[in-house]
Structures are given as C-alpha cells and as structure tokens.
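=== How it folds ===
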Amino acid sequence: QVQLVESGGGVVQAGGSLRLSCAASGRAFSTWTMRWYRQPPGKERAFVAAIVWNGGTSYVESVKGRFTISRDNAKNTMYLQMNSLKPEDTAVYSCNAAVPGDKDYWGQGTQVTVSP
C-alpha cells in the first residue's frame, strides 16, 4: 500500500522561500516517477515539476529558475524547494507517485499562501 504525506506548506511573504516534503511509504521508491502538482483557488490542478528514477527533472515554465525538485531515496522522500515566491504561487500543492506496474497515487495536499 502506497501512502504519500506532504508537509512544509504555510504562509510566506512574496520573495520568500518554502520547502515542501512528500514522504512516501511503499516498496521500490527509487523506481517511481514523482511529481508535484498545484491547484490555485478556483482553478484546476496543474503540473509543477517531476523527477524520474535517475534524477532527471522537468518543470512548468512559470517556476523554472525558482523551484527545485529533488528526492532522497534512502528516506523515501521528495522535496520541492520554492524560492522567490510570488502571490500567483498560492495553491494547494500535492505530490503524485507513478508506481511501475501499479496506479498513480496522490497525497492529501498542503496549502501554500504567498502574501503580496
């Protein structure tokens, strides 16, 4: 059974930083593709960043140069370092795990609020 638990959200002023964590339970974490998504108020959930088994990463254009996705396979944990935050980054951030031979799993989400 795969479970994902996000943490690290909160309220920060524009220009500030936060680091989100996504702790996973389950086997063979190192083989999973992990992704961050976010859902701003009144909008649909959208892709933010991804990291694959070999450390390759991808980002939505709006966060390139500001956000960094990483993973620690020994801790079964994925991170999202968010710098130079903007009010438009305000959203519920959720982590997603694509488990080979299985379905996708989602965490419950963590709220990030960036004040002007």
The two ends are 41 Å apart (CA to CA). DSSP finds no helices and eleven strands in the chain. The chain has a mean pLDDT of 97.
